[in-house]
Known about the structure:
The protein is of the alpha/beta class and 278 residues long.
Amino acid sequence: MNTPKVSIRALSKRFEGASVNALQQIDLDIAANEFVTFVGASGCGKSTLLRTIGGLETHSSGELLVDGRPVTGPDVDRAMVFQHYSLYPWMSVIENIRFCRQLAAHTRQRSSADVEAASGRADALLRLMGLEASAQAWPNQLSGGMQQRVAIARALMGRPGMLLMDEPFGALDAQTREVMHDLIRHVHRLEKATIVFVTHDVEEAIYLGGRVVLMAPRPGRIDTIYEVPFGDRRDQDLKHAPEFLRLKREILERIRETSGMKTDLEQLQRLSGLAESA
């Protein structure tokens, strides 16, 4: 059996001063080139787990391996894309994309051939993201969707083996988000990177992922893993298919159960009651 890209065993994390574990007894394998999405109620630890895989957080106990090696911090093979684009405003689009090639981890023993290859890589990513006409534009001249495309291109510049995405499309309007869904699936097919994607949007999680990992809160843990049965070739019409809607309903109901709220109306009534008693 091939070694998984990510192997997590009995992983737990407790924030200093917290009364409960942010993560408890997480067990999960993620294969190379897999696209896995994480959903769950607020506070279930999905972003904390993503940041721990990325080396931005440390775990308190258990084992976390990437490519068979313990994660001890960030690495050039694991690129992060966040909801907020974090582009450098003093750099053009193409300069933002090329930025990672200026970091020390990418410049050790770099030859002129490496520099030329990196320039070609940046141009190829511009074309892939549909940003050729905006290569010399400043970030504040771009729409939100275009800024996120730049952020994804920058993350891909160093050819990472893994792309970690924390609600990257959460701030986009519905139409732009659909475009980005198809774009990131296209990128996944071409780049062959493992993608771990955190979202609050169950429809997004099903459409993008080969598996949907549902996490539950208090403490943060894996509750259910859903295999997505729709294959690699997907289009937006799939979101209206009966089997897609059934899976979406099943996951939503499970999220409500794990969060202690069986219905949205129950949650609204409880919030209303808290407001009246305040």
